[in-house]
Amino acid sequence: MRLLxxxxxxxxxxxxxxxxxxxxxxxxxxAGTVLADSSERPIANAEVIVAALELRTRSDSxxxxxxxxxxxxxxxxxxxxxxxEALSTEMTFAAGERVDADIVLRxxxxxxxxxxxxxxxxxxxxxxxxxxxxxxxxxxxxxxGFGRFLTQEVFEKSEGRKLSEVLIGKLPGVRTLTRQxxxxxxxxxxxxxxDPRPCPVQIIIDDQVxxxxxxxxxxxxxxVDPSTIAAAEFYTVSxxxxxxxxxxxxxxxxxxxxxxxxxxx
Length: 265
Hints:
Elements: E1 2-5, E2 8-17, E3 28-36, E4 47-50, E5 55-58, E6 64-70, E7 73-80, E8 87-93, E9 97-105, H1 113-116, H2 135-144, E10 148-151, H3 152-156, H4 163-167, E11 174-179, E12 182-187, E13 202-205, E14 208-209, E15 229-235, E16 254-259
Parallel strand pairs: 3-9, 13-16
Antiparallel strand pairs: 1-2, 2-9, 3-6, 4-5, 4-7, 7-8, 10-15, 11-12, 13-14, 15-16
């Protein structure tokens, strides 16, 4: 049975116990083949993306793919390849099961962007929320695909945890140091890698720079309550938008935090 979904076709979708896994395993997997519409020939190097979980893989020369480590629940999955229209569809994953899906993509119209190259992935986590008027700008930057973006959902799931604990593992090339009881975000790589001093990440909260740059007072990231955050965005030096290049001396990356209600006063 084939189901027409937007610009592509999803076929042969069913769940089966994941190979080599017991029902006690908390994650699921997605496996299948990406095929071309009408001819059903395999499409090699097609992308399979679960953007909300930051998971992706590519099909091999036979069109086959396997994406593992998917948390149970409903997730938006994107299938795309150069020369074909992308397919975005919501799929349900159960713990310890494998979802098998044969994916049929339609050729892109001549002259369209996808006919020449892969565009950014438009399917992302739920929009940031709250009453902060700057959230709309956050959502627009997220669509551009540069940087790392965390929505309010991430912080709501972290009740009782410190912000440093929430961020580590989600920001590339960043770790924490303890200085006089304060938790400091520092880069593990950067343009001053030969400098023995810690390389602090620049912190901007609701448009206010909290640590201007090297040699300045470091900011205790755990001063910020995760439950008050609507969104956060992290940029390396090469990714950072010009509006966040405030200090002119932040070679270790920039973390921009937006509170749920915006600046006070």
